[in-house]
Queue: 4 jobs
Job 1
Amino acid sequence: MRNSAPAAAKVTASAPVRVRSASVRICTMLRRLIPVLAAGWLAACSAAFEVDDHPVAAPPPPDLRADQARLYFYRPNDSLFPAIRPEVIINGRKVGVSVVGEAFYRDAQPGRYEIFLTSDDDDQLTVTLAPGEVHYVRTSIILSWLGPHLSPTSVDPEQGEREVQNLPLVEPRLTD
């Protein structure tokens, strides 16, 4: 006679089921997506592009009066991120736009000046000008984990003069 007892179900071992919460799935997705977005953003910002506007060449600067000072502002051709074009602000007044491959100047009364760029107004440069002094301010790029930012940097007069000679001197852009 056959055994009429029901056959025991065969149990097989399987891997434990892992349930992922929504926040874990979102974090995983962001971890994969952020590098792709960052690479695209950097490529877009550093790509050379055609600019419709043509800067107006400035005449050679006149001789500096003995009772005045001169500030040169420039951004070398080797700069990254040409799409970032911050305004140059001196003591709260816009005096030009920092554009890759251009230089401009402003004559000023001797005194103390606060200079910053609209891309980062926390990074100010304080300059005290003496009569007859020529001062050079270079737009420098600082890369951080937050992304690039531009900063006004004082440059040694010899280096500044050498770098400005390699750039076209233009009329300051008051609109971009």
Job 2
Amino acid sequence: MVQQLPDVDLRHYISVKENQLFTPSTRIADVFGKEHRNVLRAIRSLECSEYFNALNFERVDYKDAKGEKRQMYNVTKDGFMFLVMGFTGKQAAAIKEAYINAFNQMAEALHNKQHDNSAVQALQATNQDLQGELLQLYRDKAKLLEQQLSHTKKASTRKSPSNKYFEHKKHQFIQNVVQYLRQHPGANKTNVMAAAGFKKDDKTARKWLADYEGIHWESEIIGISHAYFCKE
């Protein structure tokens, strides 16, 4: 469960520019365990006004690890909250809370230090290594909990021979969805269900789609529908 996971201090993921707080989209991707290209796609697909977009999403260039020029966005707190409303998964809620807390703490630091940027920079540098370890611990713990849950489900189904056919159908559903999403990233729920051989209102298939989100695939809200992406 989320409350079993350690608190994560993300203040060093918040930067300051002209007394304004922001976080780069590359760091949002890092913390949520997403591909940066998927975060960029989510930002560009947001249904917000041009004014809000210009105010809260600043497009900038940066150089990646290979020294190649790439694009990213500097995202304000308001932009961050608008963006991550569509992020789902077992870790997402707690990470959203930690990120928002980091924005609030940095804003308070700016106020208390009367815009003393050197103090804010010192705050950002504090315990970065430790926070990186905590973030990894967070992800490892979530993965362990998911594995334990999966093992518990498998153990219970072994005791019931009548469930073999049900398990076969579920395994086939997972394989079909993974194979389809590898070829069609960003597909909506209706197409994913159809590719797996089910109607979109099939309760069992909808439950499987939700149960294995964050394990075999992930989803984002783009526009008014869910877009699914393979994690394998």
Job 3
Amino acid sequence: MFLNDEEAHQSSRTSRRRPQKKITPQRLRNIGLYYLKRFESSVENLRSVLHRRIDAYARENPQWDKQEAYVWTEAVLDDFIRLKYLDDDRFTEIKIKNYLNAGKPARYIKNKLRAKGIAESAVESILSEEDYDPCAMALKLAKRKKIGPYRTAETRHEFRQKDMGTLIRAGFDYDIVREVLDYEVTEE
């Protein structure tokens, strides 16, 4: 009933992954719709998701022409844009609001959205509309993590360097970090 180590290792080696289903234009469309049902996405991000699926199928079937599937991907993306399933502006606004609510700094937001294929100018314009205050964001993060001014007075000085490192790694500028760590919280 129980397998020893050698038998367990051998059985895991012999078990194969299920083969990839054949990629067709309809299958790519279904993959895209299923992804968009679960996640809001930018055009570039969905393109990379579909290309990864195409590449995985092409690895198992080397004779298959993946260039043709890349053309299908563009057609699927064009359809999704036309039907308003994909909208980079909507995606950018949603992501920026979520990141700001989480207390993320502008540098973090720009890097995350750049990785998703969003132009930095689009991020800048939406951030300027959103009343972005880096000091308030840093205070929000400090409050959530209970660091800096939200520590007890006895341990505040002892953990100053550690708290500074936490805020700087989060993406806040040194001047903002110093301002937040020197901030005095008033009890309301």
Job 4
Amino acid sequence: MNINEGLRDSTGSSQARMHAQTKQELVREILDAMAEARAGGMRQGFRNLMGRSVSMTHMHVLAKLRMAGALPMSRLAEALDVSVASATGIVSRMEERGLVERKRDDADRRVVMVGLADGGTAALEELEARGREFFGRVLEELTKDELVQLRNGFRAMHRASQRIAQQERERASVAAPGKGKPHE
């Protein structure tokens, strides 16, 4: 049974099966459902971008640059798991389409930095807008009770992610004792 069937089916046998699942099975099922939903939203956004010759590789580059900011060509190549020569070719095609721009590093003129151009930012914004539009339509199909359950689930996920972030900060402070404290 997938998560969608479990949410829509309110029969006793379905609920008994849902309660019989282990926590690991539920996590796996939810992750699968999230991946399917995310893929559906991305397909909607990609359709228009593909018509403008924006490939999946280009979207990967744009996403990396949005997250990390401008990167040296060598670091971008490493992030893409390609050679610097291949990354240079990818960036050249993207630059021709106005998606990225290259600049020399002010500190070391030998280093070529790759950053988002206005067209790349616009492509990412368009993809996000189409994804939001798609998910808006999906949410409109849910009942009010289902929306409340979904909202509560997302709130629980947010609280859990905050706890994980706090635990990671605490581990980092234990791993680097005395950091930020004056030496005696």
